[in-house]
Amino acid sequence: MNVTASDDTSKYTCQATNEAIQRSILDSIILNIFYKPVFEISDSKVFEVKENESIVIDVTAKANPEKVTYRWTKDNDTVWEGPVLNITSAERSQTGTYSCEAKNDVGESVITIVLKVLYPAIIFKKGDESENMIVAEPGTIVKLECRGDGYPLPNNALKWKRDNFDMTGRTETLTPSFGRSILIVKNVTRDASGEFTCIADNGVGKSDTWKILLLVKHEPIIKDSETYKSVLSDRGKSAQLYCKAEGIPDVSFSWSFEGAIVSHGNDRMTNEVAKLDYLTWQGNLTIADVNVKDFGEYKCIARNEIGFATTEVNLLP
Fold it and tell me: How many C-beta atoms lie closer than 10 Å to residue 251's C-beta?
């Protein structure tokens, strides 16, 4: 008879009968089959564990003789001995295919398992602030790129978001390769200026975000405010006149009074510029030791390489 490992410890009984005296006798034997190790889990089974967590993989095999030696290998290097692979704090580098060789006096068997170490999606951020900003000409097509990593990292792990912006109608998303997402903003106009957020989320741990600033060039636009339109000052005191404008690229300010540019050659008048945010600028004209000839209407001229805009500010006694 042909026997296999499954026949080990099987019991066979032989019965002999004498009909003349109506007697029978029985005798039994138990098979002791020697066989090489047989694994009880399926080959190429996949195991998953999160980064920094532990996992125990037990591939103990049946064998006769029962004395079995085990050797685990990964990339042809021995990484463990024994039937149980015990990883106490999983690392990304431990992702891969492992082979376990089980051997006794009869022979050897090999099983392969796949270990996947899962870790949260992250974005490769650019350190220099200027690299996180794009200045574009109006009417052009702008491409914003986001690169990330994580395991797993499906195509939809990298997404783009911007509040109060028509992402569906004005943008298109491409995923040209693993870990890359390109947002195409079509026919950009002044109102497209703002922050776009790339979000990396693969369902493992916390999501990661990165903001990229899109600035579309346009001429200065005065931000009028009643607070700035009139300034009161006593004679002999200092007065400050303010003028605020939005514009890309940088906005500069000049002031005129009664048709002449002020502050040039005038020690009492100082013209300064402050950047309030990525597209808002403020011009400050300080007049020291105000006298009666200083009262009247001042014109603020906000200018950049695209164009200019003006507004009036009154200095009143």
Answer: 27
**Each residue's pLDDT tens digit, 273-304:** 999 998 999 999 999 999 999 999 999 999 99
Nearest Cα neighbor of 195 from 277, 266, 295, 84 is 277
Domain boundaries of the chain, sorted by first residue = 38-120, 124-216, 219-315
pLDDT in tens, 90-137: 999 999 999 999 999 999 999 999 999 999 999 998 766 556 889 999
Domain spanning 124-216: which superfamily? Answer: Immunoglobulins (2.60.40.10)
DSSP per residue, 12-37: EEEEEEETTTTEEEEEEEE----EEE
Question: Could you give the dihedral angle defined by the CA atoms of residues 175, 180, 186 and 189, in that order, rounded to the nearest 10 degrees?
Answer: 160
Long-range CB pairs of 82-89, under 8 A, 24+ apart, other chains included: 83/58, 83/59, 84/56, 84/57, 84/58, 84/59, 84/60, 85/56, 85/57, 85/58, 85/59, 86/54, 86/56, 86/57, 87/49, 87/54, 87/55, 87/56, 87/57, 87/115, 88/54, 89/52, 89/53, 89/54
- Give 219-315's CATH code, choosing from 2.60.40.10, 3.40.50.300, 3.30.70.1350, 2.40.30.170: 2.60.40.10
CATH for 38-120 is 2.60.40.10
